[in-house]
Amino acid sequence: MLNVSLCGIELKNPVIAASGTFGFGEEYNNVFDVSKLGGIATKGLTLNKREGNDGLRIYEAESGIMNSVGLQNPGIEEFIKTELPKMKKFNTVIFANLGGGTIEEYLSGIEKLNNSDIDMIELNISCPNVKAGGMAFGIKSNIAYDVVSRVKEIAKKPIMVKLSPNAENIVDMSEKCCKAGADAISLVNTFKAMAIDIYKRKPVFNNTFAGLSGPAIKPIALRMVYEVSRAVDIPVVGMGGITTWQDAIEFIMAGAEAVQVGTANFIKPDICLDIIDGIKSFMVSENIKNLSEIKGTIRGV
Amino acid sequence: MLNVSLCGIELKNPVIAASGTFGFGEEYNNVFDVSKLGGIATKGLTLNKREGNDGLRIYEAESGIMNSVGLQNPGIEEFIKTELPKMKKFNTVIFANLGGGTIEEYLSGIEKLNNSDIDMIELNISCPNVKAGGMAFGIKSNIAYDVVSRVKEIAKKPIMVKLSPNAENIVDMSEKCCKAGADAISLVNTFKAMAIDIYKRKPVFNNTFAGLSGPAIKPIALRMVYEVSRAVDIPVVGMGGITTWQDAIEFIMAGAEAVQVGTANFIKPDICLDIIDGIKSFMVSENIKNLSEIKGTIRGV
Amino acid sequence: MQYKYERVKIQSNAEVANNIYKLVIECNHEAKPGQFYMLRGWDNELLLGRPISVHDVQDGLTSFLYEVRGKGTKILSTLETGYRIEIFGPHGKGFNTNVKGKVAVVTGGIGIAPMYYTIKALKNAQIDLFAGFRDEVYLIDDLKDFISSSYVATNNGRIGHKGFITDIFNPWEYNLVLCCGPEIMMEKIVRMCRDYKTPVYVSMERHMACGIGACLVCTCKTKDGNKRVCKDGPVFSGEDVFLDA
Amino acid sequence: MQYKYERVKIQSNAEVANNIYKLVIECNHEAKPGQFYMLRGWDNELLLGRPISVHDVQDGLTSFLYEVRGKGTKILSTLETGYRIEIFGPHGKGFNTNVKGKVAVVTGGIGIAPMYYTIKALKNAQIDLFAGFRDEVYLIDDLKDFISSSYVATNNGRIGHKGFITDIFNPWEYNLVLCCGPEIMMEKIVRMCRDYKTPVYVSMERHMACGIGACLVCTCKTKDGNKRVCKDGPVFSGEDVFLDA
Ligand SMILES: Cc1cc2nc3c(=O)[nH]c(=O)nc-3n(C[C@H](O)[C@H](O)[C@H](O)COP(=O)(O)OP(=O)(O)OC[C@H]3O[C@@H](n4cnc5c(N)ncnc54)[C@H](O)[C@@H]3O)c2cc1C
Ligand SMILES: Cc1cc2nc3c(=O)[nH]c(=O)nc-3n(C[C@H](O)[C@H](O)[C@H](O)COP(=O)(O)OP(=O)(O)OC[C@H]3O[C@@H](n4cnc5c(N)ncnc54)[C@H](O)[C@@H]3O)c2cc1C
Ligand SMILES: Cc1cc2nc3c(=O)[nH]c(=O)nc-3n(C[C@H](O)[C@H](O)[C@H](O)COP(=O)(O)O)c2cc1C
Ligand SMILES: Cc1cc2nc3c(=O)[nH]c(=O)nc-3n(C[C@H](O)[C@H](O)[C@H](O)COP(=O)(O)O)c2cc1C
Ligand code: FES
Ligand code: FES
Asked: Where's it found, cell-wise (chains A, B) (predicted)?
């Protein structure tokens, strides 16, 4: 009853571990059976290996965290060679999260992933922690349109475009991505944020800015998911601060086909299981046979 | 030592009670001596009396609140007649927060305030809870430019433009307002957000959306204040989730001349006094003689 | 300063009926019947205080009777003797208790909370209590000495009339009716009373933030326009709110 | 499942020196010296757990020694016997204690916390302890039975050498050095040891989120590239981290 389908791919339930918070699943599989998840979004991959950012990488805010990891990852080839075979042993859907600084980088990444055993590509046009231009893709709709169109020309896997909440206009952004051929949309990535060490009189992060995630952003993320779901007719995967099954249901009612859980994994490592169980109990008690009955049923003013 | 000056107006300290959370000061004066504040921003005023929104008006989120008051206010004339004389008894700077749905409404409002005894006008181009067009002023820089230019043509009081964090591009927005002649900028207003009642399967708010404020938004608000302060050379007043004196110092180091405290007043009614005292102690212990020594000293990448 | 924000000590906090707690704090303000405090028993876990009516004031102690509904009241229910909580108040205009004649007090569920102190203050009146509950009945025994008769209804008929308190309430006998409970019940009572021109006062509930009339989130529509439940209320003329608004 | 996330009972939690607390919980994992747990003693007041090293394991009890620094350790310090906290672990690779010969254990401040359990496990070695403190000295007496000599330094000279522990440490005498404390002190020790080719292992600190190697926020640069302190560490070869990274 929990199963949902995303661009023709069947998920056993709507709960996906969010990119960057779950590695490649291996570590969490030491805590619980990750095959129980609807899916896993890999750590953000780039064409070449990246060491990520210097300095402090995480800082706690009220009901949220700020991170500045900067896309540390082994590179796509190494991922396909070393990590993917291990991931494939889990019985869950694999979303390869792909980041990049230039269109060419994205395209080369897509080519490599085309022939791999992943299920879907989550195209991260929104990483706020990479300086070299990467940011603009997620901000300006027309630039996003270019990337997504080019990617779609060559992609052999379904493309789910992951939007940044820092986009100038999230609705327009989603419409442009849709027009460019995106198979699905996921949102939101982290919010551009900042913290200052008042004694050192310096930004806490070497990069000045960092990405805010966690419960703090939920009300804004939910609003964006609602707006985007109403604007496009491709599936939307919602995230941003989801910590309880109630949060997950809110996102589904707002229009999300499935949800991702990121920061909450740090609160309780097997929180995804609690969320899955909670969704199930809710469905039983509310006599919901299939999540499509409540998906996007919220209609406001 | 705490005094700051804003467009030639002297504030005895940099802590201003934020619009909409403090009424016209009268009620809080039953809790503490509001003359100890640097200033008070009035409840958002409109040309004509408004009853505000129906349905639930406040809802708690993680480390934040969502409100949908919808600019309930007695109208400018009634304000000037009934509330202002009472406010004038307090020894503090009065910011008349002015909202509106059309340029004409703003202009008529300005005309009335021109001849009143207020110190400064906080031009709220960003109220997210008013439907009729009011929203766009705070979203699109060029529309904001029009409003502010027209307002400045006739205004006899300093105009502090209050920006919305929902602006498409907060930096561009601030630059346009500056170009249009704004005397100061304040930011941020509340974030457009949403909550869903999963049992009723309806938005919690009649208006679907509501404005998120409080500690949850602080890291994003701080980032925006930092970016705007670097972009414009008029004074910036920072706000968004300020709850402790440390928060206030962060905003000042990010570039704010003064700060406003909104939601935190609901945590502890005299929290502004704690913040003022904390700033003072910090200055003593760090040997800071004047806040200008630390204002905007943060320089990141 | 009219309203005080203070840290006070819990004298006791015990479950007196299923999910219903009585909290007693050390505090000697002169709160009036029907007034309330904003209570906080947490740091940054929750942002807002919770409005709770004064249940009783005696010997330097103030007590509250509350039902556990959500996060805030849940946290409150776990606090133990000696722990300090923040209280802010007393707020609002309460019931006018300087009345004579026959008075009916009509309550639904936890709406009975403010009525203990109110009934005790109605020294010159002859009081009948009409109290509705879902299932378990509480507080009625404690009130015996102060009232003439009590009528009880429970939804499931466990005690008293099976059904609603409005089924057994008779508005024509009274000079005044004081009412606190779910809006649907209060509206019914107000409509019943109008037919007999019996004046009714109701205690309204709204989500609150400032508690003192500054933020306008607790608005209630009345005959005379928007009123703030925290400051202009929580007690209003029932007609003004339910019939003529 | 290698790592357990559990709610466990506090057996005791007491201040053992100024601002230094010892927390004992009921837990019978077989943690290794130098490993740590992510501890949580709160619901939604803070989001992340706090990494704290195993201080001792004995008779089904695991203990931690921690200094109150910020919000999390402050909350921990207020928790009482019987209260339940969440623990997640044990995490990381600890110290190799299967060594012989002369071993120096060098600590700065609360860096001594993991060394109690570590020293007890170094059964076949002859151990000298060099411990630096700001002001108050703690734990040294409890370690007497397990070590040959102890050398103490305090910044203000209250006890032992006045100054830094690095002033009195002599790297040439030891087959192995184990080190935990501020980075500046550890780096100094590593540099001193390199001159004599004495191997040093250091326990690194980084802010953490997942604690298990998945989120890459706890990265430490080493000779072999970025390593995760939570999973690949917290114990690393000192040279790899401070000299050849
Ligand atoms: C003037 C007044 C007097 C009251 N007196 C009592 C009393 O004596 N005993 C008692 O048990 N209850 C009383 N209530 C209701 C009580 O305030 C709510 O039950 C309580 O706030 C619920 O908080 P929560 O965190 O447990 O629930 P949640 O639902 O988690 O609360 C979420 C938010 O909604 C608000 N909220 C939820 N329900 C209500 C409600 N019915 N009224 C106002 N705010 C609400 C909370 O304050 C909080 O801000 C009174 C309410 C008002 C307005
Ligand atoms: C592997 C490891 C073992 C540790 N063992 C001990 C121990 O046995 N005893 C002890 O007293 N301390 C130990 N620490 C340090 C301890 O984790 C921090 O003092 C603690 O997290 C501070 O939390 P706070 O909320 O009190 O401080 P805050 O400064 O309020 O914490 C804010 C955030 O920063 C993180 N943080 C702050 N300082 C540190 C730090 N030095 N290291 C890692 N994260 C930090 C917190 O975890 C939290 O996420 C250890 C750290 C690590 C990495
Ligand atoms: C430590 C950390 C690392 C992240 N890395 C990535 C990443 O590599 N790629 C990506 O698309 N999103 C990344 N994210 C964003 C999350 O996938 C998610 O979009 C965001 O955190 C909001 O969801 P949450 O509030 O549930 O965490 C990261 C988030 C965190 C906290
Ligand atoms: C209940 C409430 C009412 C508000 N009304 C107004 C208003 O009338 N005009 C305005 O410019 N801002 C209004 N605001 C926004 C605040 O002035 C402030 O910009 C915002 O809340 C962010 O600051 P904070 O996090 O300190 O509350 C209101 C905020 C709240 C919580
Ligand atoms: S709660 Fe603020 S006006 Fe009533
Ligand atoms: S804390 Fe997540 S990788 Fe170390």
From this structure: Cytoplasm
